[in-house]
Amino acid sequence: MTAVAVGNWGDPGADPPHEWDQARTELEESECAIAGLVQENNELRAIIRRVREYAQASHQDADDIRKYGNPYAALPYENAALALERIIGDRP
């Protein structure tokens, strides 16, 4: 059995021109949608990176405060950093 008999597929040149135009339009729409998703993904990665950097800076601030002998004053910085890391999935 040939592909023509099974799926009713014929010679692509035999398809009506409006079907090619429709397929081209759908392909362009799909490409635009994918491009938008890639851009959104990159923006989300940048946001996560900035949150991660902020959490690291908060850890560093807490360490600096502890060095100067005030461990209780470091707790808000440390807790905020840990909470941010949990939110973005860096800590269990």
- What sequence of helices (H) and strands (E) makes up the elements? HHH
Q: Count of DSSP E strands?
A: 0
Mean pLDDT: 86
Overall geometry:
rod-shaped
Instruction: Summarize the biggest pleated sheet.
Output: none
Number of helices: 3
- Can you give the helix content as a percent range? over 70%
Which range does the strand content fall in?
under 5%
The chain-level structural class is mainly alpha
Low-confidence stretches: 1-6
Distance between the termini: 57 Å
Radius of gyration: 28 Å
Describe the structure.
Helix content is 80%, strand content 0%. By secondary structure, the protein is mostly helical.
Write the layout of secondary structure elements.
Blueprint: H1 3-7, H2 17-67, H3 71-88
Helix pairs in contact: 2-3
